[in-house]
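As agreed, record passed on underneath.
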Amino acid sequence: MLRDLWSEIETYKARDPALRSRLDVIFSYPGWHALVFHRAANKLWRNGFFFWGRFVSHIGRVLTGIEIHPGAKIGKGLFIDHGMGVVIGETAEVGDNVTLYQGVTLGGTSLNKGKRHPTIEDGVIVGSGAKILGPFTVGKDARVAANAVVLKEVPPGVTVVGIPGRIAKGKADNDQAFEAYGTAADVKDPVDRRIEALLNDVERLSARVQSLEAEVRELRGGSDEGEGEGRVVKFGG
């Protein structure tokens, strides 16, 4: 377990540009501290010591602000950045090299005692405040943008944004490209794109109406008084 925790330190060193030394991780990084407590709590839980597993987990929550149920399955290389308010439920499964930012919830939406929390596959990035709720899978290398609420399956490699979560970007050419907080600069919410398109249409139609009104005024101004009554005037192309 100690060897695995040392490798987790290397993960932090690789993914956090603010990190100065390994000692910073050991003494000052709550995400790594939460993993230390979880590894111990999970070992107790798997060996049937449920009370002590929950107790160790609770101590970790008090000290770090990160709540990981001792029954959750956590892979290698989990990077929890900042971490305050992260919640990972009992039946959640987190793959290797996953990144979670502060305020992320991997939660359940039912009282079913079976699988009720999400499965997060390798390489996924989940932005701050995002909620992934339910017993479905978020595919490998997917990105979940900050504050998104995901309620259904996410295909591998895509970027999901909004409430409820919608695919805003297809699979990237480079699956390993890191995107901080799960969102690239060029990603826009599909709903925002539709609204923008509608606004452009309204603007174009308004300009056309103004043009037609100008033509009508010109035609009326050029006709004799009273001559235009009952006449159908054709205009526009």
User: Anything to note?
Assistant: Residues 190-222 form the longest helix (33 residues).
